[in-house]
Every structure is written in structure tokens, then in C-alpha cells.
Amino acid sequence: KQYEYILTSKPDPSVALITLNRPKALNALCSPLFDELNEALAGYDADPEVGAIVLTGSEKAFAAGADIKEMRDKQCAFSDVYKNKFLENWTAITNLRKPIIAAVSGYALGGGCELALSTDIILASPTAKFGQPEINLGVIPGAGGTQRLARAIGKSRTMELVLTGRNFSAREAEAWGVVSRVVGEGEGEVVKEAIEMAKVIAGKGQLAVQAGKEAVNAAYEGSLIEGLRTERRLFHMMFATSDQKEGMSAFTEKRKANFTHS
Ligand code: HXC
């Protein structure tokens, strides 16, 4: 399908690639872009061929934030943003079953940083610049930035970033655990690496991948006690699948597992 603000492709039958494509505005996340993104994500989440999704932007910008020009006219209109559920469509991405890997080059600021934080794994190019500069616009992060950063990097650093609005580098993001890895130099490197990782994940048993995502999210989203209970129960559930039998048999028989996702 042709979209106006995103490009979609399958670099491998098992991997979906979504590229934010609003170059003139550095991929500012206007509402129609988000609607398209959600539609594409839902389609791939439902596509049995796809095992993992990669989300990327351009070399210059993953996304420079929510669209400031669109938001500007919303000032002093609580009734408008509340009634129209402003930002509610930003949560759909966190409800997907399949893993999403963000491949970030250039600016990931404001809503762009929050969008990356809403994915499951972030890979960064050395050029990546993250930040929550909303304070400079007289607002605060509104799509999870304060919550997800606080969980990922602690209170003091998050306070500094949210209250000063300063950017942080790919290396800082890596040292703090915001991103899983900074990949090598070179144009397109981070996307290539993300596609490779997506292929690896897509090659596993999808039931276990989805249960693993659910369990990690339980650790991230809830209390430790709830998380441990959820993990135990999901682990028990794995013993009701053929993939568990196949995976463990293949190991003992010293051969490659042939998962049927059942
Ligand atoms: C709308 C944006 C934009 C944005 C850039 N543009 N960011 N338009 N919303 N967030 C537009 C510019 O207006 C300009 O268009 C074009 O993209 C190129 O940007 P420049 O500023 O000319 O580029 P450059 O000098 O290279 O500077 C890059 C930049 C800067 C440092 C990233 O663009 C910048 O500071 N952008 C805003 C970053 C920001 O504050 N993000 C947080 C947004 S608030 P024209 O037509 O003028 O040439 C937010 C709230 C989230 O995200 C709340 C929850 C959703």
C-alpha cells in the first residue's frame, strides 16, 4: 500500500520495515503520519509471515518530535485536546504482539525519542541524538518520556534531561541502557543491523518470542512481584506448545529446531 508519510517494505519475507518519510519536516510526527504508522503496524502484526518489525527514519532524523506547527494552535484549549483524545493514538504501538526494533540515526527528539522508547529494542547509529526538549516549548513530554526514561536511566538523569531539555548522545544512551547497542559508522548501517536482528528473532518460535516480549514488559511495566508471577505463568504456558517439545528435542538430538509456531 502507498502511504503519504511512511514507506513500507519487506526486506525479508519474515521482516517488515517501516520508514518514516516526511523529510522536509525531519519526520515530525503529525497526526496523519501516526494514523498511517498505526495502520501499517496493525497490518504487519496480523501478517502471519512477519516475525518482527523494524521502524526507522532518515539519516538526519528518526523523528524531530511531535509536529509543533500542528500543536501550536491547540494552546489554551484543554477541551479540544481532551475531547479529541489528543495523543491517544500514540499508545497503539505498545499493544502490538510482535517485537519492534527502532533503528535510530540523527535526531530522536521529543515525541521522536518517546516513539523510540515505545519500541522493544533500540539500535542507534553513532549520529543519533536523543532528547526531551519539550521544556523549551513550555510543555513536558506527553507520550511516555518521563515514565519510560525514569525506568530506564533513573530519576536524577531523567530529571536533568526533562528539566534542562539537553540532548544526549548515542554513546550516553548506550552507557545508560536506553539503547541496546550503538552500531558501526556508515550510511544505512543501523537499519541493516536491525533487519539482521529482526531476521534472527523471526527465526525463533513465535509463540515464545511473543511470550518473552510480554514477560519482559511485565518487568518493565509493573511491580517485581507481579512481574515474577506473570513470568512464571507464561513459562508454564510454553509447556503446552509443540515448539517447546521441538526446541528441547532438537537440542538433545543436536539438530536445528524446526518451529511450527504452534
Ligand atoms: C514541526 C519541525 C519539527 C517539529 C523540525 N521541523 N522539527 N516541524 N515539528 N518537531 C521542521 C522545521 O520547522 C523546518 O521546516 C524543517 O523541519 C527543518 O528543520 P530545521 O530546524 O530547519 O533544521 P535544523 O536547523 O537542522 O535543526 C534540526 C532540529 C530542529 C535541531 C531538530 O529542527 C529542532 O529543534 N526541531 C524541534 C525539536 C523539538 O523541539 N522537538 C520536540 C517537539 S515537542 P521549515 O518549513 O521551517 O523549513 C514534542 C512533544 C511530544 O515532541 C509530546 C507527546 C507527543
Automatic annotation (TrEMBL):
GO molecular function, one term: enoyl-CoA hydratase activity
A Gene Ontology term for the protein's cellular component: mitochondrion
InterPro entries, sorted: ClpP/crotonase-like_dom_sf (IPR029045), Enoyl-CoA_hyd/isom_CS (IPR018376), Enoyl-CoA_hydra/iso (IPR001753), Enoyl-CoA_hydra_C (IPR014748)
GO biological process: fatty acid beta-oxidation
Keyword Lipid metabolism: yes
Keywords: Fatty acid metabolism, Lipid metabolism, Lyase
Matching CDD domains: crotonase-like (cd06558)
Annotated signal sequence range: none
EC identifiers of the protein: 4.2.1.17
Top-rank lineage group of the source organism: Eukaryota
Top class in the EC scheme: lyase
Family named by the database record: Belongs to the enoyl-CoA hydratase/isomerase family.
Protein name: Probable enoyl-CoA hydratase, mitochondrial
Species of provenance: Stereum hirsutum (strain FP-91666)
